[in-house]
Design a protein that fits this description.
Distance between the termini: 43 Å
Oligomer: single chain
Structural class: alpha/beta
């Protein structure tokens, strides 16, 4: 089977329940025993509706939420409730209790097989092959008997999907963009220019802090378990905008994981080249020296100089580098630190430790010789299904919009993993081959700019229009009464952020989303 699905099938003859989930994890499926009852469903709220449901929070999952801004599978925020892993099925027969998921497709194996049998043709041959495989995926996903459109952020991935759609459409494709009034976060102007070049029928909407504030109360119900990727807010608004005009929309999601788009794939090796040669003792000593003085003091001393060099909060950056120098023995260590938002999360959540998980179990990592390929595979196994696809699915389903991602087509994924790294990372930039393919459709100057991501101006909003809301959720009495977090750590982080001594918006967002979720569930333990 190809596509996105989560299914449950009852076999009346065998008296057995089958559960299965799509290869990458586009659709959710939760399951678990509560007493003598086996519960399953695509939403936690469906499980919560059962009278036997226990609402005890899994503190280990909460620690992982703080570390990553999402709860990685197979865990959920509730004790005893799991996510069925992508690419697996499970069969529960009468009288059975302890059943384990069985894998029918493995992304790790696809990556290993691709690396072992790399594409050996020229750049042009690779480009032609990519255009063919991506074009087929787009054509297949454009099949719909309802109005169809595309999310167009102005970045490489969504622009390529839109360009391939428009090349296969006899009428202008409907495209949708969210913009911000804060210039450093706004890509709406680029998307507008691309839409004009491709001749799409374009609609844009600008997001303000007030729009975000109005949306925040809906997040716990929409996401069903605490979810703290703050781009959930603009994502939902662009889905809402698209739904006014279309029923199905294509997106550029997953281009980063399969074609080398995230900054860490370039910055990780660069940083390691600078520090990896040092003897561990020297590296740790330098790390201790960088963290010896408070970040705020370094910000004050180095502020004027660093401002001229275009570096904000030099003390915070020195501290971050110092912590990494102290902890890193290999480039894999560096990668793990780059994807951890709150590295001491096991100490911040009271009465818990970090549970077993893929990032900490290196013996389970895909067997790939190239450390950057390992990074990409791990992102595709964790960040993609548990952050990106969760964000997109819940935001779209909340407005009954069906989203489709051509980069998640099985043939595209399998082809991408055969491409040598030099066809992904080249000339100091990621997604080299996607850029080359895009050159056939869109002028380079409309695309050529630093990668922004789909962020919101969270740090500033938390010091301003969202401050009162956040302060209520992080009130000292409340945190003490609930007993989930180390009070001193949370208050210290919040106070430093508010004073502008550091920018901890993304770190705090996971705590705030958990607190907002607690309010919505009225869970008190």
């Amino acid at each position: 089977s190809v596509g996105m699905f989560a299914l449950a099938l009852w076999d009346g003859r065998e008296r057995a329940l089958w559960l299965a989930r799509d290869r990458i994890g586009e659709k959710p499926l939760y399951y678990g025993w509560q007493g003598d009852t086996f519960l399953f469903g695509s939403e936690l709220k469906a499980l919560r509706a059962h009278p036997t449901f226990q609402t005890a929070v899994d503190r280990g999952a909460l620690a992982l939420l703080l570390r990553h801004n999402f709860v990685p599978g197979p865990y959920s925020i509730y004790q005893g409730i799991h996510k069925l892993p992508p690419g697996t099925w499970m069969k529960l027969g009468a009288g059975q209790r302890d059943v384990q998921p069985v894998r029918y497709w493995s992304l790790a194996e696809v990556a290993e097989r691709g690396a072992a049998n790399p594409f050996t043709g020229s750049d042009v041959e690779a480009l032609d092959a990519l255009e063919r495989v991506m074009g087929n995926a787009v054509r297949g996903q454009m099949m719909a008997d309802v109005p169809l459109g595309a999310m167009l952020s102005g970045g490489i991935d969504s622009t390529l999907v839109t360009a391939l759609m428009q090349a296969r459409s006899s009428r202008p494709v409907r495209t949708f963009t969210i913009g911000f009034h804060e210039k450093e976060y706004d890509e709406a102007g680029y998307a507008h220019a691309i839409a004009a070049h491709l001749g799409t029928e374009h609609t844009e909407l600008f997001l303000t802090a007030n729009d975000a504030l109005a949306l925040i109360p809906q997040m716990p119900a929409m996401y069903d378990e605490p979810f703290a990727d703050s781009s959930q807010l603009p994502t939902h608004l662009v889905m809402q905008l698209a739904r006014r005009h279309v029923t199905v929309a294509l997106s550029g999601d997953a281009g980063d994981e399969f074609f080398g788009g995230y900054n860490r794939y370039l910055l990780g090796p660069k940083a390691w080249r600078r520090i990896g040669w040092m003897p561990p003792l020297v590296r740790r000593g330098l790390g201790r020296a960088l963290t010896a003085l408070p970040a705020a003091t370094l910000n004050r001393w180095a502020g004027p100089l660093s401002a001229r060099a275009g570096i904000a909060l030099p003390g915070d950056k020195a501290h971050k580098l110092g912590m990494r120098l102290r902890a890193q023995q290999t480039m894999d260590d560096l990668f793990v630190s780059l994807v951890c938002e709150w590295s001491g999360a096991g100490d911040i959540v009271r009465h818990t430790t970090i549970p077993p998980n893929l990032l900490d179990q290196r013996e389970r990592w895909p067997r790939l010789a190239d450390p950057v390929a390992r990074m990409m595979a791990l992102d595709a196994l964790t960040y993609l299904p548990d952050d990106i696809l969760v964000k997109v699915d819940r935001a779209a389903m909340a407005v009954s919009l069906e989203t489709r991602a051509p980069f998640l087509d099985r043939d595209v994924i399998e082809f991408a993993w055969t491409l040598p790294m030099a066809m992904k990372l080249r000339e100091g930039k990621g997604k080299w081959i996607l850029r080359q393919l895009l050159d056939r459709h869109v002028p380079r100057e409309l695309i050529e700019r630093p990668k922004q991501g789909f962020g919101i101006p969270l740090d500033g909003w938390l010091r301003g229009p969202l401050r009162e809301w956040a302060e209520t959720l992080l009130a000292e009495d409340r945190l003490r009464h609930e007993g989930y977090f180390d009070l001193k750590s949370i208050r210290h982080t919040w106070e430093r952020h508010v004073r502008g001594e550091a920018s901890f918006g993304h770190r705090l967002w996971s705590v705030l989303m958990f607190q907002a979720w607690l309010d919505a569930q009225a869970v008190r333990h």
